[in-house]
Amino acid sequence: MKRHFIFLFFILGLFIFVNCQSFGQTKPDSSLVKIPLADTSLKHKSPTGALSRSVAFPGWGQFYNDKYFKSTVVFGSETTFITLAVIEWGRRNEHKRNFENLPQDHPDKAWEFEQFRFYEDRRNLFLWITTGIVFLSMFDAYVDAQLYSFDKEKVPDLYISMIPGDKVNILFSVKF
Question: Most buried in the list 57, 72, 81, 162, measured by CB within 10 Å?
Fold first, then answer.
């Protein structure tokens, strides 16, 4: 029960963090002229497109978001656990065939059944791990696409206002 509350608290905190991007941002005085100090042309990525790509092929969603190292890690881990599940599936089928082909009173029949169950459990474990990795990679690709231009929006701004009569106001702001 305690783990459920911790998980719920984590998800709630993550939701609040993602949705509070504009908290505390105020617009500058309209008499000020903004002079961009960096390239402010923002490139956006489709979160749904990243999620769909991540489901379709391991690591494609991360590759779409220009996260190349993360893409190779996701591809490698998903491929590894899918391969392990397929190998265990083959071993499970082999021991199932052996179990079914042995006579009822054979001394190895119980051992073959235990081996069948062992490899079936390992196959299921690898399939669950693969499912978890796929879910995490989908979530990661979606969040990365949402936050793709996040760092680029944090450039400092310089505002200059010229008031008639030898006054120049300069405002330098950095958003956190």
Answer: 81
d(CA 147, CA 57): 21
pTM attached to this predicted model: 0.59
Q: How far apart are CA 80 and CA 144, in angstroms?
A: 24
Can you tell me the distance from the alpha carbon of 73 to that of 70, in angstroms, rounded to the nearest whole number?
Answer: 5
Tokens 């499912």, located at residue? 131
Neighbours of 44 (CB within 10 A): 9
Each residue's pLDDT tens digit, 40-55: 455 778 888 888 899 8
Which regions of 25-156 does DSSP assign to beta strands (E)? 33-36
Per residue in 60-72, pLDDT (tens digit) is 999 998 889 999 9
Beta strands in 56-156 (DSSP E): none
Which backbone phi and psi does 139 adopt, to 5 degrees? Answer: -60, -45
